[in-house]
């Protein structure tokens, strides 16, 4: 029961961070906010997939599917940090 709550709270926290970062990007047009917001969108997707993997489909291993959003999220953040910061 506690694990379900924690998985849901992690997904909601990632979603809240993504929304706040992307809203701030819409106001300021600071590109690092865009890359950070997109990173948190994919981290939210990863958290949802984690919940599905552990709670909904415990007999199916979705670890490789869960790794894809994390790689995309980190690649977006790395791009933003390396090439967009001046």
Structural class: mainly alpha
N-to-C series of helices and strands: HHH
Summarize the biggest pleated sheet.
none
Instruction: List the uncertain runs.
Output: none
**How would you state the average pLDDT, rounded?**
94
Query: In what range is the share of β-strand residues?
Result: under 5%
Helical region count? 3
Q: How big is the Rg?
A: 14 Å
Work out the helicity level. over 70%
How many domain regions?
Answer: 1
Number of DSSP strands?
Answer: 0
Task: Tell the overall outline.
Answer: elongated
Q: Please give the alpha-carbon distance between the first and last residues.
A: 46 Å
Walk me through this protein's architecture.
This protein has 86 residues and is an all-alpha fold. It has one domain (2-83). The protein is 86% helix and 0% strand. It contains three helices and no strands. The N and C termini lie far apart (46 Å).
Entry keywords:
mainly alpha; 3 helices; 0% strand
Please give the structural blueprint:
Layout: H1 2-28, H2 31-56, H3 63-83
């Amino acid at each position: 029961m506690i694990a379900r709550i924690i998985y849901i709270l992690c997904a909601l926290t990632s979603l809240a961070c993504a929304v706040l970062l992307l809203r701030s990007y819409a106001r300021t047009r600071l590109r690092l906010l865009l890359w950070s917001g997109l990173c948190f969108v994919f981290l939210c997707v990863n958290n949802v997939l984690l919940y599905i993997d552990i709670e909904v489909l415990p007999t199916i291993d979705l670890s490789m599917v869960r790794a894809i959003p994390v790689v995309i999220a980190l690649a977006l953040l790395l791009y933003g940090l390396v090439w967009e910061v001046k």
